[in-house]
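Please think about what follows:
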Amino acid sequence: MELPVVNDEQVELLLADLLEQYGYDFTGYSRASLKRRIIRLYSLDKALSFAEFRYRVNNDQDYFKRFVEQITVNVTEMFRDPVFFKTLRDTVLPKLGTYPFIRIWLAGCSTGEEAYSMSILLKELNLLQKSLIYATDLNPTVLEKAAQGMFGLAQMKQYSENYILSGGTNDFSSYYTASYSLAKFDEELKRKIIFSTHNLVSDHSFNEFQLILCRNVLIYFDRDLQNKVLQLFDDSLDDLGYMALGTKETIDFSPITGKYKRLANHKIWRKVS
């Protein structure tokens, strides 16, 4: 099937609408990626014209929620990239364990798998009671799902394998209760997680953190917006705190790079000045 044509001017009009109507600023997002996802939704929902599509986004709250859900990227899994979580377990969290209290920010947490993974790590290191995890995302729909702490039972085999590769030694199934096709994670893990909307583009720093994770979000931003978000993280991170990014992301060539030292072979940096 031939995809409908959406031109660059129409994309810009839609982005301007979102900013004016809802305060959602997508103007610093990678245009190619955004345009691809807008065309996909436009095609899926079979709008008669772009004008009709734009009208629905602007005037139908439910459709706007669907729009945000479809054009923001929500790909995640528990203990994704197990070597990364093993580094947190063996190197980063034991150092933070010497602090009286640990505040962690998971920016772009999507449906929450990373937040529950972090909670399990902290529990196994006996640090959960003195920790607080702020899990934020632009998309309120995925946050509602994250707050439920329920994931597909069919995914647990993969998540269990990831967990073991990350250095986990417990029976992974001890952290959840199976109910029909769902795995419901323990309330104890959720108690230390605060799920909240936060827009990396327009919202400000809201706390001081010892660890900030923002993995596979910056790749969807242009260079200027990446630098703006990295500055936000720098403003939010304590001295000697840690910042972790995705495998294709870096702080190199950004204005903050001189303040950080990278952990060998990992996309984790420590703030040293």
Remarks:
- The beta strands are 102-107, 131-137, 150-152, 176-179, 182-185, 193-197, 209-214, 237-245, 260-262, 268-271.
